[in-house]
Specification:
alpha/beta, 20 helices, about 475 residues, about 50% helix
Length: about 475
């Protein structure tokens, strides 16, 4: 009987709380809680997630205190336990596993013993610990796989099983923001560390690499230490490599790339554009970025968006109705980041305002995030509007015919896709409009721009079509 006293105390607390709050809020925020133990005047309860705990305290701290004081007296205390990850399979809650990857220590020779210390070496210290900079949240278990990222996921699994020994070296992941490039790249690094703990893995944004390089060349002897440090890596993951501009920085990276690749080390890069579209990159470096496998991450389809929402809701310990999940999946189509942001905003608004999570609330929240028009512009919509305007079929638009009217319609479709759809690569546009390559799309955009400045009739075509795609708000 004594062992079950914690259940009795918590049930009495629930009875008190039920009488003082809205029934719907009680069902959402208190029914999922489970009593764990009672030690003296300290009651331990289990909550679904850290998010759940934070908002429970924000919204209901006063009533929790009152209920506990009523049952256990003024010395009453409350402790939280986060529900084990296994209860929310296949997703894992990050705070529950907390297995942050750790590298073994490595030795880096200084340029001149007794001279100025390098950027990664302290005087008299031969071996250093390298923080891999990997976030355990970005593991394969938390990655929702769909047609939009399946190829990258499959390649990543192969690499993590045999880093540096597959044809996918380097692996170049590209696509618009919020499509999961960083998540996938870090997931590969985390999986490698799990399988091969002795390998030294490092994740670094290109902007940070550039800053480190500039710091290194500013001080005598540091540059050599800088190069030596990076050449010690077994797996180098560089994020947003499009930021690696500047000939000096690229020269330094070129030397590091060559050394690591020739030594059989794994290289992984992410970018917001395809290798062929990187600007101000040296030809010799570009050719090396194309050596392995380039994978474009696409916008998630409806099924993948819906699965992502379900998975994230599970991680937060929140149950959402099918209608709400389906509404969000239909409403937000651009990327995972925006979808996740909408879900968190919805949960926060419902909690802080003590509102039930309904489709109506989801609609009001997403309206502020997505807006009305821009999100609806897709390559498919551009094709439909252009075809209707010129009174041609989609089959004609994507065909290989060289008829002047069809060619101009095709070029306008490519141009509109380029300027109206944010972070849509040239290769994606080309593949959707007739299976063209990025060079053809670039030529089409240039041609349309030139014709608009010399041909008034053609310019009117473009203006009319743009108004159809993005109506002016009144």
């Amino acid at each position: 009987m004594t062992a079950e006293r914690h259940i009795l105390v918590w049930n009495n607390c629930l009875n008190f709380i039920r009488e003082n709050i809205d029934p719907k809020q009680f069902a959402v925020w208190f029914r999922p809680i489970k009593p764990v133990a009672l030690e003296d005047s300290t009651l331990k309860i289990e909550v679904p997630s850290e998010f759940f705990r934070e908002y429970l305290e924000d919204a209901y701290l006063d009533i929790l205190k009152a209920a506990l004081k009523k049952e256990l007296g003024v010395a009453a205390k409350l402790r939280y336990v986060i529900a084990p990850v296994q209860k929310a399979q296949p997703l894992s809650y990050p705070a529950a596993h907390g297995n942050t990857p750790v590298n073994k220590s490595i030795s880096v020779e200084t340029y001149a013993r007794g001279g100025n210390p390098g950027p990664f070496v302290f005087p008299g210290v031969q071996r250093i610990q390298v923080n891999p900079q990997l976030n355990p949240v970005y593991c394969f278990e938390n990655l929702v796989v769909g047609e939009c990222n399946r190829m990258g996921f499959t390649a990543g699994e192969s690499i993590s099983a045999a880093p540096g020994k597959t044809p996918f070296n380097p692996l170049f992941l590209f696509g618009g923001p919020g499509l999961g490039k960083t998540h996938l790249a870090q997931a590969i690094g985390i999986a490698i560390k799990k399988k091969y703990p002795d390998l030294v893995v490092l994740y670094v944004p290109a902007s940070r690499f550039k800053t480190q390089f500039m710091d290194a060349v500013a001080v005598k002897n540091k540059f050599t230490d800088f190069i030596a440090f990076y050449q010690k890596m077994d797996v180098l993951i560089m994020d947003d490599i499009q930021d690696l501009n500047g000939p000096s920085t690229q020269n330094a990276f070129f030397a590091i790339f060559n050394h690591l690749h020739q030594s059989g080390k794994q290289l992984i890069f992410t970018s917001d554009r395809a290798p062929a579209e990187l600007e101000h990159f040296e030809a010799r470096l570009l050719s090396r970025l194309k050596w392995g496998l380039s994978v474009e991450l696409q916008k998630p389809d409806y099924a993948t968006r819906l699965e992502m929402l379900r998975a994230r809701a599970d991680r937060e310990g929140i149950q959402l109705s099918k209608d709400v999940l389906e509404f969000l999946a239909h409403r937000i189509k651009s990327n995972f980041r925006e979808l996740e942001g909408a879900l968190i905003s919805l949960l926060a608004n419902a909690t802080l305002a003590h509102k039930e999570i309904t489709v109506e609330l989801a609609e009001s929240i997403t309206e502020k995030i997505v807006g009305e028009d821009q999100n609806d512009v897709t390559i498919d919509k551009v094709q439909r509007v252009v075809c209707d305007y010129f009174r041609i079929s989609r089959e004609e638009l994507i065909s290989k015919t060289r008829k002047r009217q069809i060619v101009q319609a095709r070029q306008i479709a490519m141009y509109m896709s380029r300027i109206l759809i944010s972070n849509c690569s040239l290769s994606t546009i080309g593949s959707e409009i007739g299976g063209k390559d990025h060079a053809t799309v670039l030529h089409a955009c240039t041609t349309v721009t030139d014709l608009m400045s010399t041909d008034k009739t053609f310019k009117q075509y473009v203006t009319d079509i743009e108004k159809l795609l993005v109506p002016v708000k009144r």
